[in-house]
Design a protein that fits this description.
The chain has 14 helices and 9 strands. It is α/β, with parallel strands linked by helices. Strands 1, 2, 3, 4, 5, 6, 7, 8 and 9 form a 9-stranded mixed beta sheet that branches. It has 2 domains: 191 residues, Spore Coat Polysaccharide Biosynthesis Protein SpsA, Chain A (Alpha-Beta Complex), CATH 3.90.550.10; 98 residues, no CATH class. The chain starts with a strand and ends in a 6-residue tail after the last helix.
Length: 302
C-alpha cells in the first residue's frame, strides 16, 4: 500500500521541523512513502527545499481572490497516485510510530478515513482541551486535516476539497465522507504535536473557525437539526452574543454565564468561555456576510 504525505505551507517556517521529522522515518528510506510539500511561500523557503532532496516540493501560486488552502490540498493529491493520502499541517511533529498507527486501520481493518490526535508541546492549551473531550472514542463525526489519512478512492469519489472555502474545507470534506457512508476512525495514539502560538493567535484562530462553522452550516443545511444536540456551541454562543444587550440591561440574566463556566470546570473555564464567545462572533460574521450577499445579489464568501 503506497502512501503519500501531503504538507501545505505558505508562511510557516516550522514546516522545516515537519519535513525533517518525516524525512527521518524509516518508511521514507525504504521508498514506501513519499512526502509532498505544496508551497505557496513564493520562494521564501527554498532553502528548506534544498535541504531535503527526497521530498517533492511543488511551488504553488495562489490565484487572485481565491482561497489557497483547499486548492493546495487538491494539487497535492493530484500529484501522486498513492493508495493512501495522509495530511499533516506545517509545524506538526509526529509522535513515535505515528504513520504506522494512523494507517493501520486502513491497511488491516478496512477503514477508509482515519484521524489521529494532536497536542501542544506543553499539553495544556485550548486545543488540548478539545482533544481531551474526545477521550477514547472509536469514531468521530468530523476531523481536520492536521492529522488525517484517507483512501485515495474516497477523495476521488467525493471530488476532493471544496475550493470555495477559506477555512473549514477539511470539515466539509469529512462531513461529505460521512454522508456518503464512510466512517472516521479515531486513533488517539497516532498523535502529532503542534505549537498553536500565544493567546492572540488562539483568539484569531477561534474567530476564523467560527466563521468557517457558519459557512459549513450554510452549505450543509440538513445538519441544522443537530445543532442543539451535537454542536451546541455553534448555536448557543452566537445567541448569547445577540442577547448580550438584554443581559447587560438585566444583570441577573448574566447568571446564564454560570452554565458554560460550570460545564467547563476543571478546563480553564474563563478562558474557554472567552474563546467560545470569539468563536460565536465568527459564526455571526459568517451568517451576516451570507445574508448581506443574498440581499445584494453577490456570492457568499466561505
Amino acid at each position: 500500500m503506497r502512501t503519500a504525505i501531503i504538507v501545505i505551507n505558505k508562511s510557516d517556517a516550522g514546516v522545516q521541523d515537519t519535513i525533517a521529522s518525516l524525512a527521518a522515518m524509516p518508511a521514507m528510506a525504504a521508498g514506501d512513502v513519499e512526502v509532498i510539500v505544496v508551497d505557496a511561500s513564493q520562494g521564501r523557503f527554498d532553502h528548506i527545499r534544498d535541504r531535503f532532496g527526497a521530498v517533492r516540493w511543488i511551488p504553488f501560486t495562489p490565484l487572485p481572490g481565491r482561497p489557497s488552502i483547499p486548492h493546495q490540498r487538491n494539487v497535492g493529491v493530484a500529484a501522486t497516485d498513492a493508495d493512501t493520502i495522509v495530511f499533516i499541517d506545517a509545524s506538526c511533529v509526529p509522535g513515535p510510530d505515528w504513520l504506522e498507527r494512523l494507517c493501520a486501520p486502513i491497511r488491516d481493518e478496512g477503514e477508509s478515513v482515519v484521524a489521529g490526535s494532536h497536542r501542544s508541546p506543553t499539553g495544556d492549551g485550548l486545543r488540548d482541551l478539545a482533544t481531551d473531550r474526545l477521550a477514547d472514542r472509536a469514531y468521530l463525526t468530523e476531523a481536520p486535516t492536521i492529522n488525517l489519512a484517507v483512501k485515495r478512492s474516497v477523495l476521488t469519489s467525493l471530488g476532493g476539497f471544496d475550493e470555495s472555502f477559506r477555512y473549514g474545507s477539511d470539515v466539509d470534506f469529512t462531513w461529505r465522507a460521512i454522508d456518503a457512508g464512510h466512517r472516521i476512525r479515531y486513533v488517539r495514539d497516532a498523535w502529532v504535536t503542534h505549537d498553536w502560538g500565544g493567546l492572540r493567535e488562539e483568539v484569531r484562530r477561534s474567530y476564523s473557525y467560527g466563521r468557517a462553522r457558519g459557512h459549513l452550516y450554510l452549505k450543509h443545511r440538513r445538519r441544522w437539526r443537530g445543532l442543539l444536540t451535537s454542536d451546541s456551541p455553534a448555536l448557543a454562543y452566537p445567541l448569547l452574543l445577540i442577547a448580550s444587550p438584554l443581559l447587560l440591561a438585566r444583570r441577573r440574566l448574566l447568571l446564564a454565564l454560570l452554565v458554560p463556566l460550570a460545564r467547563n470546570r476543571g478546563r480553564r473555564p474563563v478562558l474557554t468561555l472567552a474563546e467560545h464567545l470569539v468563536y460565536g462572533a465568527g459564526v455571526l460574521r459568517a451568517v451576516s456576510s451570507w445574508a448581506g450577499d443574498r440581499l445584494g445579489g453577490g456570492p457568499a464568501e466561505r
